[in-house]
Amino acid sequence: MPSKRTIPNILQQKFQELPTPSLFKSIAINGLILFVFYDFFFHCDNRPLDLSLPFIKSSGCDNSSNSPPTDLSHIGFIVISSLKTWKHRRAYTESWWRPNVTRGYVFLDKEPTQQFLPWPSTFPQYQINYDITKLRAYPKIVSQVQVRMVHSILDMYRVGDKSLRWFIMCDDDTLFFVDNLVEVLQKYDHTKYIYVGGNSESIKSNARYSFDMGFGGAGYALSYPLAEALSKNLDDCIERYHYLYVSDHMAQSCLADIGVSLNLEKGIHQIDLHSDISGLLSSHPQSPLLSLHHFDAIDPLFPSKDRYESIQHLMKAAKFDQSRMLQQTICYQRETNWSFSVSWGYSTHIYESIIPRSILRKPLETFRPWDRISRPPHFMFNTRRLTNNSCETPHVFFFNSVEYTPDNQVLTTYVRSSPRNLPHCSATGSHSADPISRIQVFSPSGKRKKYEVIECCDVEYEVETNVAGVKMRSCMKDEVIA
Ligand SMILES: *[C@@H]1O[C@H](CO)[C@@H](O)[C@H](O)[C@H]1NC(C)=O
Ligand SMILES: *[C@@H]1O[C@H](CO)[C@@H](O)[C@H](O)[C@H]1NC(C)=O
Ligand SMILES: *[C@@H]1O[C@H](CO)[C@@H](O)[C@H](O)[C@H]1NC(C)=O
Ligand SMILES: *[C@@H]1O[C@H](CO)[C@@H](O)[C@H](O)[C@H]1NC(C)=O
Predict the structure, then answer these.
(1) Which residues cross the membrane (predicted)?
(2) What is the pairing mode between strands 75-80 and 103-108?
(3) Which of 243, 294, 246, 251 is nearest to 273 (CA)?
(4) Which ligand has its closest atom nearest to the C-alpha of 49?
């Protein structure tokens, strides 16, 4: 909890000594002195005079740097599930969960029946949610399921693990990249009130609930002090917002009343989209991938695999290097006028023309909007529409395998999923990429790509062969990709 604002004794005494007529003037002057005093001496040390708001983002001079950096053991996951959905979604949770390493629980509506027992040690242990029929506000509640979900924060708090620094809310169909999550949470001061999450891709969804809301399927983080403040106020807050029918919206409303707003992170993905999301995943910003969601609402991530196999396959690349997962790197083969766009661990595209990064970073609109009846604009980002123009349509290669090379690099290989079935782009010469069947991408191993540092690459291709190579490297100073 934040400590109360206190005025140092000396200043209080000064106030008392002042004659009444000049009181207002003195308040103004003292206020100014106090402000200057605070600004000069206490900006980096808020203990003696705690005027700093507890939820301001870490400024680099906070006290949390005295404690060891946040690691996985400081993060408590709250996986919201139910017996009905756990049955087929547990495989999604299992694919990122690290037994005996990641911490947290699956929260269920009921005691597991025989078919779930014995409970495997490869899953998070379970907790049964509080019986919300006991809440004073229960008769007024509009959605019991959603209140049970939001109540999981309090249920987790009651488990009583004070060594945690963060609570992460998520669904049973959320996929996490936990090493990246640790890196991103390290940026924030966990001793303050911090709320980190992501918007929906759908403008309509954000507008309907709140642009200041972390979508729970994508996962959102609450610093422990914030989770504590929320827990202490939750039952009253549920009563206040009994008419809300989405748990994340209820949580966001309660947090807003505490005075907290959302810190957006680019790597958190709600995936409020339908069909083929490969266009989105192939233009991921160079920001750590944190989560993916809604696998049952979209096509399998890889064309020749089912949903579950696709996730297993993606996680193979993640085991070698989470820091580069999906991140888009662009380079050119000038001899043939080709552009290469790599989405590390997922896909590689070749365009038979030179297209600047400003264009290629916009996702190809391979997907459909979440809300089928609404009018455009649908998405929170710009897209490129699909065309049959040979110069704008990529040859698409999907992640196939990953290995270490003898000289200690990571080699990911991408293979063509289907022929492009278009003539070559004549505008930039007669260099068809049809013969290319495989792309090999080399990246450094053993160290994570630094947070939000942009990488560049070089193409290695011998004309007339069917394999192209791409080497990741640091960008040169002021390097322009166009
Ligand atoms: C900073 O943290 C240390 C260790 O956690 C604690 O002993 C100290 O009192 C804190 N100082 C301030 C000014 O908050
Ligand atoms: C986790 O730890 C427990 C107790 O130490 C052990 O019995 C169990 O096999 C471990 N599970 C895994 C998957 O390593
Ligand atoms: C491209 O051409 C194919 C075959 O003629 C057609 O079915 C498809 O709708 C076209 N796509 C676009 C985006 O124009
Ligand atoms: C590359 O494309 C440009 C037109 O954009 C063209 O003038 C040039 O000849 C092409 N280069 C090759 C090697 O084909």
Answers:
(1) 21-41
(2) parallel
(3) 294
(4) 1
